[in-house]
Amino acid sequence: MTDSVSRSPAILYKYLPPERVDVVANGLLRYTQLGAFNDPFDGRPHLTALGTDEQLLESLACIIPEENRRAYDMLSEEVRAQVPFEVFSALAISIAEHGTPSFMEQMRNVVPSFQDWFHSKMDEHIGVLSLLALPDNLLMWSHYSFGHTALFSGLMCSMPISTASFLNLTNCVTYAKCCIAKSVLKLP
Fold it and tell me: Each residue of 56-84: pLDDT tens digit?
């Protein structure tokens, strides 16, 4: 009896449109960037916020003392001799508290550009090799066929996953019923 956790399926299939006959001819497979998938939601988290208002304020409160010290240390010796750190820090905290609504608005406005940057970084570092354990999947045939013509190639997978380095990272796809939205601070 084969242990399903330690072994991959006997054959995994790669569905291809007819114009990709070069994959079969050259024996090369591509790890595709998530941004090249035809579904914009595949592997692309929808970032709704950098964090909740409470999380952002907590982060700001953690950053302020360190930044106050760094800013104070950059002042000339003459200024530091006239203004003690405690006075400087209290003034900086007061300014930050009055600027909090503006800070929060800026954090909300940066989400779309942060999401674009995050997705581009994912595309630089993550590639997906889409394989299927079924040779007769109707969805795949309908997606990749052109005029009822398509290619699919079977990859023999007889070794344990632990010894097949590229298979060591295989995972089954789990589809959600709706687009998952997360704040950045809640990403795993």
Answer: 878 877 888 888 899 999 999 999 999 99
